[in-house]
Structures are given as structure tokens and as C-alpha cells.
Amino acid sequence: MTHIDAGTDLDPVHPTTAPVTGRARGLTAAEVAERVARGEVNDVPVRSSRSLADIVRANVFTRFNAIIGVLWLIMLFVAPIQDSLFGFVILANTGIGIVQEWRAKKTLDSLAVIGEAKPTVRRDGVAAVVGTSEIVLGDLIEIGPGDKIVVDGECVETDGLEIDESLLTGEADPVVKHPGDPVMSGSFVVAGGGAFTATKVGREAYAAQLAEEASRFTLVHSELRSGISTILKYVTWMMVPTAIGLIISQLIVKENAFKDSVARTVGGIVPMVPEGLVLLTSVAFAIGVIRLGRKQCLVQELPAIEGLARVDTVCLDKTGTLTEGGMDVTGLRPLNGSDEAYVREVLGALGESDPRPNASLKAIIEAYPDSEDWRCTEALPFSSARKYSGARLSEGDGQSSTWLLGAPDVLLPDDDPALTETERLNEEGLRVLLLARVTRELDDPEVVRDAHPTALVVLEQRLRPDAADTLRYFEEQNVRAKVISGDNAVSVGAVAGKLGLTGEVVDARRLPAERDGMGEALDAGTVFGRVTPQQKRDMVGALQSRGHTVAMTGDGVNDVLALKDADIGVSMGSGSEATRAVAQIVLLNNSFATLPSVVAEGRRVIGNITRVATLFLVKTVYSVLLAVLVACWQVEYPFLPRHLTLLSTLTIGVPAFFLALAPNKERARPHFVRRVMRYAVPGGVLAAVATFATYLIARHYYTGEGALEAETSAATLTLFLISMWVLAIIARPYTWWRLGLVAAMGGAFVLVLVVPGLQDFFALRLVGTTMPWTAVAIAAGSAAALEFLWRWVDHRFPA
């Protein structure tokens, strides 16, 4: 709260000491240049993804690339080039991964620059907006409601300044600041304004380091990625003993030619590695970031794409989400015989009393210009916790008066007749503010007692044209929308009703305080009004305690705590710096209609990766089991690397790439590992047993020179047909392009079998008709068994 000399010209920011005779001018241009030369600049790390070197390192130096790389080098020395094709595939995969992630990084970096905080710095007495990285030690930084404190500092000027340090200290109550008090980066202004001198910049500000690390673009905390890591860990454990057993059986027991034994050993080890699965996940996420970037959606944490796809409840803040930020004054209703002309002058002076007016006050300023004869001598900034602002005014005739402007149902007792008119207007979806005259001092805790109602200010909110369609989308996708607002519940309910959102309207002041009771009320209701910032946070926690995955949207300072605690926080680009800092997703175009695109992108990524993971892991399972069977039966491994490279390309690699990028609207479900393995294990076991059975039959059928090649060809045919059936199941539900994809892969294999040059290149030649048709019959029986087995798994082990 500020005391201002009535005869002093008002500056945008006022010191608390009265009278105000001037203000700090900040650094001079020469002082700024000197500090830049000394390196005393706020050179915090760029908030974005990994550097190009990190991207290359992460994609090249992986456990499985090391395994494949060693095997590839061995094969280049002991076998024809066609048995080394798997190495070139890995090179291509790694290159694709690097290019896609680099493109995603460039998209994120460009969007991060658009969305970053732009503090106001006073230099040579002139305020100017600069980039966060341009702040130097000793700079004088102006702050107001919603501004994020970007460096550590010390207050120089304060005007009712209240700062929320909950993100640093965990203490939810705002802290009132006075000149000389410290401010910490990572906190934000909830009321009032002021200016502070930067005392620690760049990496010296410890709180800034914490905030930067917390909000850095990252790939962690993703069920998808952690699930894949778990799978790969188990695959590694299986590979080592299996590979050792295979090497012993091929090199020692069979006593084959050394090079041929090595080639077949490598042929058994390579397909155990699901090398393309990690790549496809990275590519799918990266392409998701690029697609959303084109729609001006900044994904500050990559798993947010995945997280929003898992959401089943969206909590919407009305202002700035369902309605546009601006408002219009549509009426003024004097009360108790008040003079309308006098009321207009009061409102004009109140509008000028706040250097950083909110949307309501901006509408009042536009409607009621300030009278030059009136002056503000004391101000109480608006706070979302109080629901009102106030000022002591010196009127043109020398008289003084004290006024409050805020929510009628907060300023007046329940039985006041003015509330009847307020309720009627609220039911029409209008916003109503009460102008009340008070006799107590503004700093009196009971200032609202005995408030005298003077006028009702009627405001109309501008509905977002795309809000109704967005709410309809969420309803169709079984995502429940909860409107949570600090405004009057009836008014918010009317606005929601205009947008087609129906359901129980609840005044949050009557909600149970305990979590269980609040959770029940939240499940039952749809629209909640008069919600305090702390209540918003409690409501998110209550919904989460009932098993809901919650997304929270907002743009105001009062939304920050809830955004931080929600599973996914979504901020508008025009929102306060504090909300943009804690949100995982920032809609830079301020369009609520972008949210369905984010949800759809997340569902596409998760649903499709779950599909293609099954393809990769079926191959891993049958490769491990085939190696075990070969070692136990003491026979030659049936395949050369070229055979499995061909099968992997046609039944997994190419189809998986297209399937991973296809549209998918299915809501993401938890337990990724269980859902994938319940299909991969029975599918892989069936493929291995059927293939090995064909191989053993062929070993008894074929004799003489070329028998091994004929046996391999028959086993390859069986394995290809079963793998194609797995692909056909995974590709459901069919569309024209999915059917075309499956048919094209089948056609490519037929081409290899009938073109002599390709037969020689891949060492595949079907001999006679009995054994090939036997292979087809075994594959057909296995396909039927696979259909039955997967349906039984669906029923017995539901996801």
C-alpha cells in the first residue's frame, strides 16, 4: 500500500517513502558497457534442448550401436557385403535421428526466444524492455503484477509490492516487500509494483540456476521412454548368455568353416537388438515438437506431449482461456441515490491509481477518463486473494474519500439488497464490480466492514470464438472439462453455458476443506467460482488423489501454483511471465483451440509407439528363442545376416516408420511395458517355434550340396509369413494406405523370390514345391494360432 503526496506528479512506479520527489535513474549507458566488458552479464544457459554435439553423442554412442558396430566390422572382414547391410541400416537410422532432433531443437530455440521473459530495465532514467540475457549487474529492473523475478536483487522502490516465493520456499503466502528487502529469481509479483537492483546475475544467482534446470527442455519423466529403457535392460540381460551359447554351438560344436560360422553367429545376435525402437521414439517425439511449433505451441518439456495425451480432466481458467483478455463496460448502475456524474469521476481516478491495471480496470479506464482535479494519495493494488483493490482520493474540492472496487459478494454482507441485482446480471453472464465507499483506512484488516455501496459497474467479457469447438472436442474425447475461476460462480456458469458446457455450478467458498470431500464435489460439479489461488492448487491435488491425470490452463498470476502442481501446465503466451515459466506448454498464439492439436499429437506418438514396439519386440523374442533352440539342438543357425536384414526391413523397419507417424486418436493408457510384452512374448515364441519346426523338417527333407541354402530359404519363408501376419494385426483398423503398406511389403518379398539377381544377392532360392508349401502351411496354422492367442491375452490380461 502506498501513501502519495497529493501534489506530486505520479510516476509509473512509486517509492514507499513519501513525498515522492523523484526516482532512481538506473545505470548509464557507459556503466552498462563497462559491466558487459567485465562479463557481469546475465549469461544464463539458453532454455532449450541439447546442443548439436550432445544430440550427435546421444544418437551415436549408445549401448546397442556399440554392439552392432563391432559385429558390423567383423562381418565386413569375414562375409560378403550383403551380410553387412544391417550396419548401413544403423548408420541411416542414426543419421535420421540426429537430423530430426536437430530440426526439433531449432524449432524449440526459435519459439523459446519468442516466449522468454522480457524484463523492463531503467537506464539513464528511461524504461526499456530488454532480453533476459542483456541484464547486467546493478541494473534497475521495474516489476509489476505477474512479472517473474529473473535475477536476484534488492528492492529500491515498492508500491504495495507483494511477491510469491512459494516456488522457492514452499510458503504459499505472498511476502510484502519494502525498500532494502531482497528478491530472489524464480519468485513472481502477485500485487503492486516496484523496482529492484540486480545484485546477482547469470550463474551466480543460485535460485536462477534451480529455475533454469527445472524448466530446461528435457526427455525425462516419460513413461514411454522409461518403459523402453526397462525393456532394453532386460533384452541386454537375455542377449549376453544367449549369444555366448550361440557362439559356442556354431564355432566349437559344429566345427563349420570359420567365416561361415561367424556369419551365422552374427546373424543370430543382430536381430536380438531392437535398434530401431529408440530411434522411432525419438523421431516421433521430435516430429511432434516440429508439428506443434508450426502452430505456435512451445513444448518446454518434451514429455508434455505424452502427458497431455494421458489427461482425463482439464481445469480451465475462464479469463484468457474461455474468454479473451479484454472487456467492455456495458453499464453503470448507481446505488442508494448516488450521483452518476460523481461516480464516473471516482472511477476515472481509481483507474489512474493503478500503474498496472488488470483487464477489468483497463475497461473502466477506457470508459471513464481521469479528471485532472482528482489525485490518488494512497493505493491498495488488486489481489486475487482479496478480490478487490482500493484507493484514497483527493477530490477536486479538497475533500478526501476512500474507495474499494471489487467483487460485490466479497465486499457486501449476504443480505445486502445490492446483491440481488448483482445475481441477476451474473445470470446473464455479465461480470459485475461493486464501487463502495469506506470509512476505515486501507491498511485496516476490516476495511470492508460498513462499506457503503455506491454503484455497480457492469462488464461484458469477450468469448473466444474457438472455445465452444474446443470444449466439444474434449467432450468427444472423454476428457472432462472443469471451469475454475475467481469470478462469481453464477456469472462463470452463464459464460460456460453460452459455450455449451453444462453441469453443476458451485461456489468454491462452500467446498469442503478436506481433500476427499473436495474431490467428490469436483467430480460432481463442472463450474467453480470464487476460487482462491490456494484453492486452485488444492483442487488440482484433490482431483489427482482420485486417480485423475489433470491438465491446468491459465494466464494469470493466481494460476501459477495450480499450473506447477498439475500433471500438465498450459499457459497462454500473453500470460504473465510467472505462468509461462512454470508451464510445460505455452500457447504462443494465445489460442485455446491449439490444445486439441497437442492432445492429438500426444495420442499419435504414444499410440503408434505402442503399436510399433510390439513389432520390434516380437523380433527380439523370436531371435533369442531361435538362438536357444539352435544351441540346444546343436544345428547350424538357419539364417545369415542378410536374411534377417531383409525380413526386418520389410516387416518392421519400413512399416514401423509409417505407422509411427500415422494419425491416432486413442487415449493413452498406462502400463506401457505390460501392454507391449503381453503381445510380444506369445507372438515371438510362436514365430520361433514355427520357424524352427520348418527348419528341422527341411533338414530331413533336403540332402546333398546346397541343402543348407534350401533349408534356410524354407525357414525364411515361414518366418516372413508369420511376421507379415503380426504386421497385418498391428496395422488394424485398416485404411487404404495401411492395406497398401502391407501389400507393398509382401510384394517386395515376392520380388526377391522371383528375380534371379535378388535371389543370388540374398541367397534365397525355394527348391521344389513340397517344402515351400509345407512352410506356407505351417505359417498359416501359426497365423490362426496367433489370432486366437492374442485375443485370449486381451481377455485374460486386459491392459
TrEMBL record:
InterPro entries reported in the protein's UniProt record: ATPase_P-typ_cyto_dom_N, ATPase_P-typ_P_site, ATPase_P-typ_TM_dom_sf, ATPase_P-typ_transduc_dom_A_sf, ATPase_P-type_domA, HAD-like_sf, HAD_sf, P_typ_ATPase
Membrane-crossing segments per the record: 60-79, 85-102, 234-253, 273-292, 612-631, 643-662, 683-702, 714-732, 739-758, 770-790
Region (Disordered): 1-21
Keywords: Membrane, Translocase, Transmembrane, Transmembrane helix
Record localization: Cell membrane
Primary site of residence: membrane
Membrane topology: Multi-pass membrane protein
Keyword Translocase: yes
Segments forming domain P-type ATPase A: 119-213
One Pfam family in the UniProt entry: Hydrolase
Name of the protein: HAD-IC family P-type ATPase
